Amino acid sequence: MHTKSEIPDKLIRKFQQIYSLPPNDLHNEVLTSWYKFLTAPLKRMPFAYIVPLSIGIAVMMYLVVGQLLIHLVSLLQNGF
C-alpha cells in the first residue's frame, strides 16, 4: 500500500476552498435581502420556474417579432 495519500494535498485544498464559499453579499442590505428572496425558489426547484419562463419568453418573442425570430434562429443554427 501507499503511505502517501492518493489525492494530492493541493487538490484537497482547492476542494476545501470551493466548499467554503462565503454567502452572497451585494454590500447593500436591501439589495442582498431582495436577491436572497428572489433566488431562494431557484435553489430549491429551478426547472419549475426556468422552463415555463423560457417557454413564455419564446412565445412572446414569436408573437412580437414573428417570422424574423425564425429567420434569426435559422441563421444562428447554420452559423454554428
Task: Give a written overview of the molecule.
- This protein is mainly α.
- It folds into 2 domains: 1-42, no CATH class; 45-80.
- 75% of the residues lie in helices and 0% in strands.
- It is built from 4 helices and no strands.
- It has helices at residues 9-19, 29-44, 46-65, 67-79.
- Helix 2 packs across helix 3 (46-65).
- It is flat and about 60 Å long.
- The model has no long low-confidence stretch (mean pLDDT 85).
Termini gap: 50 Å
Mean pLDDT value: 85
Question: Percent of residues in helical segments?
Answer: over 70%
Structural class: mainly alpha
Count of all domains = 2
From the alpha carbons, calculate the radius of gyration and give it in angstroms: 22 Å
Main sheet? none
User: Which blocks of ≥5 consecutive residues have pLDDT under 50?
Assistant: none
Strand content: under 5%
What's a concise summary of this model?
By secondary structure, the protein is mainly α. Helices cover 75% and strands 0% of the residues.
List the helices and strands and how they pair.
Layout: H1 9-19, H2 29-44, H3 46-65, H4 67-79
What are its keywords?
mainly alpha, single chain, 80 residues
